[in-house]
Amino acid sequence: MTNNRSWIPYLLILPSVAFLALLFIVPLLQTIWLAFSDNGVPSPANAQRMMADINFARSIKNTFLLTLAVVPVQLAIALVMGTMVAKVGRGRETILWVWTIPLGISDLAAGLVWLSILQNSGYFNSLLLGLGIIERQASWLSYQTPVALFFAIAVAEIWRGTAIVMVIIVAGLNQVPREFREAAEIFGAGAWTRFWRITLPLIRPALQSALILRTVLAFEVFAVVYALGGRNFPVLVGEAYNWQNQNQNYGVAAAYAVLIMIISLAATMIYLKAIKVDPERLP
Amino acid sequence: MANIVIDRIRKSFGTFEALKEVSLTINDGEFVSLLGPSGCGKTTLLRIIAGLETSTSGDVLIGGKSVTGLPPKERGLAMVFQNYAVFPHMTVYENVAFGLRMQKAEDARVKAQVEKAAGLLHIEQYLDRYPNKLSGGQRQRVAVARALAVEPKVLLMDEPLSNLDALLRLEMRTELKTVLQSAGTTTIYVTHDQTEAMGLSDRIAVMHNGVVEQVGTPVDVYNYPATRFVGGFIGNPPMNFIKVPVTNGQVAAGSEPLMAPKETGDEVILGLRGEAVQLAPLQLGLEMKVRVAEPMGSHLLLTGSIHDQPVRVILPSSETVRSGDVIGLKLDPNRITWLSPESGKSFPAAMAR
């Protein structure tokens, strides 16, 4: 009798598949077509125009530098946070709640928060002035201070995006039974050894998910950059936005979108290869 | 090799007192079980000895040296956990070698020790596998081999067999005894299973509500329980407790009255092992009303009452008793435990033998 009903799971899954197909796969194919066609015929014109643009190389460089600077720091901070909170008994929930507040803030709002801190008349300059460290308002976010601008964007991104990594890491750490660390301790492993040889290998799946998610999101960075740097700090999604809205050139915007997707896919593949998760070697 | 002295250990979790001044001495090379129901504090005590938990007060000495405040790795001990805690991301070989690697032992010594331990536990053929490919029993062997490979002064085992199925548990129990006898390591073994404790231990410490109620050899603890709790916890069926009146220092039991200990008042509790009785003609023994008779093959199990109090006794299967019979039971005075109705403790007369 149960065999006759094997179509039920498919039926129940169908709406979600159809919904995703309609709103994801169709636009995806349209975007790819838009990127690689010109007046209805296949053409590399959009891609060529994208690559010939003066901001193209800069936006690639900026996006990659930002990702390289932000993701490892976020992972390290998240691991430290997760390890620290694991030692806490009472108040653990409250601490986690406070730590995840940035998760509930939209990226544009986060950008504006940091803008209010770092703009010329912002809180940071007021503090420095008050302490007598600077004598007049310093500029951190202009095109004349690219290093400060880069740091400002990186710090804002780290502030905004670490919580999601932390949530995944904490969930991963919770999956590792306490006895593994205790056994290692009994058999002579110090805190550092326990972390590197026991904890880290056992949270591989969480590390992998966190890195993939965070890296893909880092390649899509936009609103924080837009709020803090405007066009002084071109990034890939920012360029796609400009071609779409300012230049009204959907083809080049689509080419950028496809490029971002290719980069994200490549990064995901690299992580899947580099951090192999063998289910047989998990608790 | 080392002896262990547990000196007035207390442990409180908030207002809850998990251990109330526990003292216990374990001799060099001895196998001692901490036996008790869950929540009695036995695992807490083991974790304090291991250094995984800190005591509220008191001291632990291993080999004459206080280890309070020392981290686990400086205590010279190894431990086997209830859920094995075999590292899933390392091969069996690397698991067994883990302690030696942490000691930075030379490769040749690691290899020799791993092979020796693996040989003892019969896991040589699994050395290059990952633990998830192994059954529970095999993983347990890996955990024991990992502990023995470092040749610890003290071996701590926390319910090591309780995750195994019944048949495997019996097999592993016998094997553990063989392996540990040849190793001669001082061992503390935590269990709630009295047959495990009886079968494996040189001595048993029976714990209850954070207190050690009795320490003794399995036979002593079985035959001469120090408290009502011990008698009731050990043995299957558990010891019978019958409150009986005392007249002129005697307890009536058919034709041969029993001499109660001098310290008793008007009443005493008679602690009676189910098998320490013989069938006797009705007027010659203690009267028992049999409610249910269950022939078990090896013996006959009778459930009923004496002095209107529930009892279970065991007779040889050759006897014929039926449900509803009223029978006489002759008691062996040497195998009776007399207990005070007030304190629940046994009178020293019984302990003295």
Structural class of chain A: mainly alpha
CATH architecture of the largest domain in chain B: 3-Layer(aba) Sandwich
The description of the largest β-sheet of chain A is: 2 strands, antiparallel
State the end-to-end CA separation of chain B.
33 Å
Unreliable stretches of chain B: none
**Cα-to-Cα separation, first versus last residue of chain A:** 37 Å
Low-confidence stretches of chain A: none
Content of β-strand of chain A: under 5%
The secondary-structure element order of chain B is: EEEHEEEHHHEHEHEEHHEEEEEEEEEEH
- CATH evolutionary superfamily of the largest domain in chain B: P-loop containing nucleotide triphosphate hydrolases
Key words describing this protein structure:
heterodimer; A: 283 residues; mainly alpha; MetI-like fold; two-stranded antiparallel sheet; 13 helices; B: 353 residues; alpha+beta; Rossmann fold; OB fold (Dihydrolipoamide Acetyltransferase, E2P); 2 domains; six-stranded mixed beta sheet; five-stranded antiparallel beta sheet; 9 helices; 20 strands; 25% helix; 33% strand; elongated
Describe this structure in words.
The complex is a heterodimer of chains A (283) and B (353). Chain A has 283 residues and is mainly alpha-helical. Chain A contains 13 helices and two strands. Chain A has a domain at 64-236 and 257-281: Orthogonal Bundle (MetI-like fold), CATH 1.10.3720. Chain A has helices at 7-35, 45-52, 54-86, 92-99, 107-118, 123-131, 146-174, 178-186, 191-202, 204-219, 223-229, 236-245, 250-274; strands at residues 37-38, 41-42. Chain A has a two-stranded antiparallel ribbon. The model of chain A has no long low-confidence stretch (mean pLDDT 91). Chain B has helices at 42-50, 92-102, 107-120, 136-149, 166-183, 194-200, 218-223, 228-233, 348-352, and strands at 4-13, 16-26, 31-35, 57-62, 65-66, 77-80, 154-158, 186-191, 203-208, 211-216, 240-245, 250-251, 258-259, 267-272, 277-280, 286-295, 299-306, 309-316, 326-331, 336-339. In chain B, β7 (154-158), α5 (166-183) and β8 (186-191) form a beta-alpha-beta unit. With 353 residues, chain B is an alpha+beta fold. Chain B has two domains: 4-223, 3-Layer(aba) Sandwich (Rossmann fold), CATH 3.40.50; 237-352, Nucleic acid-binding proteins (OB fold (Dihydrolipoamide Acetyltransferase, E2P)), CATH 2.40.50.140.
